[in-house]
Amino acid sequence: MALAGEAGEVLAELQWLTPQECESLSDDQREALALELADVMIYPCRLADVTGIDLMDAAKRKVTVDAGRFPKVGQAPEDGDDTVVPATNGTH
What we know:
61% helix
């Protein structure tokens, strides 16, 4: 439950900001967000450590699994749906 609470604190930092405002945070806003993101990151890292899970290896496996589940940006899915996945602002 602590992880969910910390994720909520990340969202609170960004709650009323537009996407454009998120791209140009002040130094204070960026530092507050960085510290909240660090809190979110610490919990799964510690859990992985305690349970003996190699988190980087698990993440690589997950990316491979997801690559087959989702179409690439600019391409239609292979299931016959001709909807093209739009490109984002270049950060994804």
